[in-house]
Design brief:
It contains 15 helices and 16 strands. The protein has helices at residues 18-26, 89-96, 109-120, 140-155, 165-173, 190-200, 204-210, 232-241, 259-268, 286-292, 307-313, 328-331, 346-356, 360-374, 379-393, and strands at 5-11, 31-37, 46-48, 53-55, 66-69, 72-73, 85-86, 100-104, 124-128, 159-160, 219-223, 249-253, 275-279, 295-298, 319-322, 338-341.
Length: 400
């Protein structure tokens, strides 16, 4: 048999979304995967500026796959373009005799240096990222510089791994030919979230009672960082505009700089009895809340993908997303499992909520379609996409 592809993957730090994917890929006999990290800050309790609280993830981040933290000059407790400044990238790539380097994103000098090192060593380069046209900088000068520099960078990449339709169009817009694009869809641990939601079903009414929610009343869920770009205030305003009594409950899961202002806004709209601010909830707590809700809403004005949609769809729930959410083009089929509305359009969001919450039965039927759709966005699809790209650019590895 041919030997497995030796693949080096470089990412900034251990991430709760990526760890289970790395475990899945590492279990494939066709892949010999080593993941290199730039920082270990997410391995311990740290202050997340987006959530505005100190947190520590309650799922394993390093188990089940080979990994290494690259040595750095100076502190590694913060990620920016220049920090941390890694050493030994080239020596690690040379020592590993890798067939391919897979980098996640290019907005860090270590990624750019890794591309240069890999090319000098004859190692093929694969790029995966989240960008799409709607997520680009609003600064004109930044966009002009990017239009000039990025095509040159992408010509030095052997294959791009689009996570979805908008990401594919992004690469094509910068001159990447279709022959260099290999789908590797954005996915979460479907099994984890599906099993968690299934297990939560028996205790659904108990959780409802714990939260002080009346039986039978529908529930709208938002779960994200409470930042301006997430536009939770738009959702509060849309919920206040719902006319059919009884008004559904709105659960706000997450924390951040806008929380106090959002609580004031809820009181101003007279939603005190219909809204609950539940604060930050960790990964293992989320499936219970996904199971509890009738519909999930992500109204962001800047969201490269929005993996929370994948998560809640595994609980068989309909979803509503703004057209600025990258995943909307892939995960939301209009009128079948949810709706897409123009970002910031409160009236359109209100109408979408009304259409989903006609009845619990209607919401459940749409949720069943969500479960069907998200099954295609899986770690197995990622494995197939990665192997297809490797076969195209590296051929079958023949090393012992």
């Amino acid at each position: 048999m041919s030997s497995p592809y030796r693949v080096a993957c470089i990412v900034t730090h251990p991430v709760q979304y990526q760890a289970p994917m790395f475990r899945y890929l590492a279990a494939s006999p066709e892949l010999d995967l080593t993941v290199f990290f730039l920082s270990d800050f997410s391995m311990r309790k740290y202050h997340d500026p987006g959530f505005g609280v100190a947190l520590k993830w309650d799922v394993p981040l390093l188990e089940g796959y080979r990994s290494e933290f690259l040595p750095a000059l100076g502190a590694i407790d913060r990620i920016s373009f220049w920090r941390p400044f890694m050493r030994a990238i080239r020596s690690r790539l040379r020592a590993g005799r890798f067939d391919a380097l897979w980098i996640h994103g290019y907005a860090h000098q270590a990624m750019l240096r890794a591309i240069a090192a890999a090319r000098s060593l004859g190692i093929k380069v694969l790029l995966r990222g989240e960008s799409h046209r709607g997520s680009e900088s609003r600064f004109v000068l930044t966009r002009i510089l990017k239009r000039r520099a990025l095509p040159a960078l992408l010509r030095r990449v052997d294959a791009c791994l689009p996570i979805g339709a908008r990401n594919r169009e992004y690469y094509r817009g910068y001159g990447v030919p279709e022959s260099k694009l290999f789908a590797m869809p954005y996915a979460v641990d479907n099994e984890f979230f599906r099993a968690g939601a299934d297990a939560a079903r028996a205790g659904r009414e108990r959780l409802r009672a714990e939260l002080g929610l009346a039986p039978g009343r529908q529930i709208i869920l938002f779960a994200s960082k409470l930042q301006p770009r997430k536009r939770a205030g738009n959702l509060i305003e849309a919920c206040a505009a719902l006319k059919s009594p009884p008004r559904p409950y709105l659960l706000i899961v997450g924390d951040g700089e806008e929380r106090a202002a959002l609580e004031v806004r809820a009181r101003e709209f007279g939603l005190d009895g219909a809204i609950r601010f539940l604060g930050f909830r960790n990964q293992t707590e989320l499936p219970r809340l996904y199971d509890l809700c009738d519909v999930f809403v992500l109204p962001s004005d800047a969201e490269p993908w929005g993996l929370v949609l994948n998560e809640v769809m595994n609980a068989a729930k309909p979803v509503i997303a703004s057209d600025a959410v990258g995943a909307a083009s892939d995960l939301v089929i209009e009128g079948e499992n949810g709706f897409v509305f123009p970002v910031g359009d409160i009236g359109a969001l209100t109408r979408a909520l009304e259409r989903v919450t006609i009845s619990p039965e209607h919401a459940a039927a749409m949720g069943a379609k969500s479960l069907e759709i998200v099954a295609r966005y899986s770690f197995e699809a990622d494995r197939v996409g990665l192997l297809t790209a490797l076969a195209a650019v590296a051929g079958r590895a023949a090393r012992n």
